[in-house]
Amino acid sequence: MQPDLLPCHRAASVLQNLRLSSPLVHCMTNDVVQNFTANVLLALGAAPAMVIEPEEAAQFSPLADSLLINVGTLTADRSRAMLVAIHAANASSTPWVFDPVAVGGLAFRTQFARDILALCPAAVRGNASEILALAGETAGGRGVDSTADALSALPAAQHLAQLTGAIVAVTGEIDYVTDGNNAWAIAGGGALMTRVVGTGCALSAVVAACCSLPGSRLDNVASACRFMKLAGEQAIAVSRGPGSFSPAFLDALYLMNGEALA
Amino acid sequence: MQPDLLPCHRAASVLQNLRLSSPLVHCMTNDVVQNFTANVLLALGAAPAMVIEPEEAAQFSPLADSLLINVGTLTADRSRAMLVAIHAANASSTPWVFDPVAVGGLAFRTQFARDILALCPAAVRGNASEILALAGETAGGRGVDSTADALSALPAAQHLAQLTGAIVAVTGEIDYVTDGNNAWAIAGGGALMTRVVGTGCALSAVVAACCSLPGSRLDNVASACRFMKLAGEQAIAVSRGPGSFSPAFLDALYLMNGEALA
Amino acid sequence: MQPDLLPCHRAASVLQNLRLSSPLVHCMTNDVVQNFTANVLLALGAAPAMVIEPEEAAQFSPLADSLLINVGTLTADRSRAMLVAIHAANASSTPWVFDPVAVGGLAFRTQFARDILALCPAAVRGNASEILALAGETAGGRGVDSTADALSALPAAQHLAQLTGAIVAVTGEIDYVTDGNNAWAIAGGGALMTRVVGTGCALSAVVAACCSLPGSRLDNVASACRFMKLAGEQAIAVSRGPGSFSPAFLDALYLMNGEALA
């Protein structure tokens, strides 16, 4: 069963909330995408802060509006800092979002992912292979690429949402976002987005920003996906390749408004 | 009291010196802005080198023309490497510059900042919240954002300059640079620069490059601010948003000359 | 003696192979260039993955099509992870490529470079200073800049190739690639490429991608150099400076085909 498309007016209303509150997102993310992630948040109207020393991370998470945990370049040291930050976030009711980059294929991060999944993430955002792996099903991941399509992983996403209480976003050519019962589909974007590193990781940061907003968390997470799909589509329309895509993508996020979303 | 604007011919003369000597800047900076910082230095005609292993950092600082210390993503390990590099720089009279990112709000880096402030930085560059915190006054920082304006922090900057012997730059809508007695104001730039991560951090790297040049250090640091303000202004004039800003900004630094500064 | 230019049809055939197999490159590279390196590989049609925890690196190298080792921001921790990854790569016959950034000038990385040179790299890519240093000859390096020209380092490159069995690429205004007996020259590019951080480091990642392809490894490595020289040349032709260069460069890699190479 194909879920309905997220209605435009819901995304427009989430964007308005995001611009009003400019949430501060504590990003504990991988080394490859830190700059792009920060620029995506800034372009959209949120505020990024990367704080990684365990003591500081524990102090900072409660001050932030949300926390992002991305295991792309996980190390043992970084995993300890992340744990401390998650516990501090939970103690202060700061929502935290999990991006399980390449989980399933690599043993160390897969174990870490299973451990932190029990710590009540507000949302999980991954590709089909990652969501299938988190839900305990096998999939053919190859690094950060997914060899499964997103719709085929929707049942696993629903199962994972029911199990953890998180909103689960499984992203691909079409994105699916579910709370375990209901689901939205989000269309847009294009293949060129897979030729630019960090579009998925940055989406997870936008999901974190949106998890701090009032209203339905399902709608908030789905709207984050829609912002990125729409900006991707608009940027592809004016790009010659992945180089010209990136500036156009950031501009589109910056210029996005309710009309563009309609 | 509003200080005078830095005269154009002083900035032009500093730019000429920078292009002639192409200073090699040893950058120990945060993970988010390393690439942008290196590209800003290269665009302007300086040479960046990021060397972080303690043994190598100690060997490299005396070979470089200046050293940048930026605590944006400080860790305990990195703080030890920075200390070693600062001592080696001081032993060889290599000027070092301090960027106290988010100092005041986070305990670990605030203690580290107080410790190294005693080690004779050539210059300190921060926003109003950071400079107020360094000078022992309270301020409302939120991550890397400043909630105080730069002029209100000028007395704290003057106090800090007198205390440490450093040139202190407090940056914002207008930048102020002081040696404790005299001060310059630097106008330009625009709000879009706050929507691109690393413009402040990269400015600190340019300040480090300029601290290696002959002549008045006050003029040198103020000129670094002016280069960035002017390039920002020129880039904003041809940008649709923060994505198109970045390439235009680097081009403007590369193409900058005495005429543009006049 | 000036080697012959690499014939166009050889580079075209290597590009075709690269696009067909889309090699997965395990990149253990420096903190400054991770994003650009990933985007260069993606633009050209390869797939990057940055995995750095020792246990994961050892698990991942055998799954990847090749491994890149770049010591630009080497730390003691990172050097241990690299060693484990190299041994795992060798055990599974995954080719690995070495980029000896700033070797010669800094003691810690120079010792590490000498150690891993004995572990059978498939290829080594460096500037003249770095290749001279690796071959045991002195050179005047200044950070990542080379003060020697590439042709003067060709004898050292040939010696190094004979000693290690690696293809050695010494790059500069003209690149030279040798297996110890034969050599190709590769022209193109331009001085603006030295004003953008990571063009050399990203080339080494492309060399790693090409080392996984069938056919002559000498031709494969020389073709990697040619792809970057050609994209550089095309990007310079449409750029105002280093800012507009980067997007144009990635677009040129993405749009490259046999015709463009002819």
UniProtKB/TrEMBL annotation, chains A, B, C:
Biochemical pathway: Cofactor biosynthesis; thiamine diphosphate biosynthesis; 4-methyl-5-(2-phosphoethyl)-thiazole from 5-(2-hydroxyethyl)-4-methylthiazole: step 1/1
Cite the EC number: 2.7.1.50
Q: Name one Pfam family in it.
A: HK
Sorted alphabetically, the keyword list is: ATP-binding, Kinase, Magnesium, Metal-binding, Nucleotide-binding, Thiamine biosynthesis, Transferase
Q: Does the keyword Ribosomal protein apply?
A: no
Identify the residues that bind ATP.
R125, T171
Q: Which CDD domains match?
A: THZ_kinase
Instruction: Write down the superkingdom of origin.
Output: Bacteria
Q: Which GO terms describe its molecular function?
A: hydroxyethylthiazole kinase activity
UniProt xrefs under SUPFAM superfamilies? Ribokinase-like (SSF53613)
Which positions bind substrate?
Answer: M50, G198
What cofactors does the UniProt entry give for this protein? Mg(2+)
Q: Which reaction does it catalyse?
A: 5-(2-hydroxyethyl)-4-methylthiazole + ATP = 4-methyl-5-(2-phosphooxyethyl)-thiazole + ADP + H(+)
Q: Which family does it belong to?
A: Belongs to the Thz kinase family.
Q: So what does this one do?
A: Catalyzes the phosphorylation of the hydroxyl group of 4-methyl-5-beta-hydroxyethylthiazole (THZ).
Alphabetical list of HAMAP family matching this protein: Thz_kinase (MF_00228)
Matching entries from NCBIfam families are given as: PRK09355.1 (NF006830), thiM (TIGR00694)
| Name of the protein in question | Hydroxyethylthiazole kinase
The organism is Cedecea colo
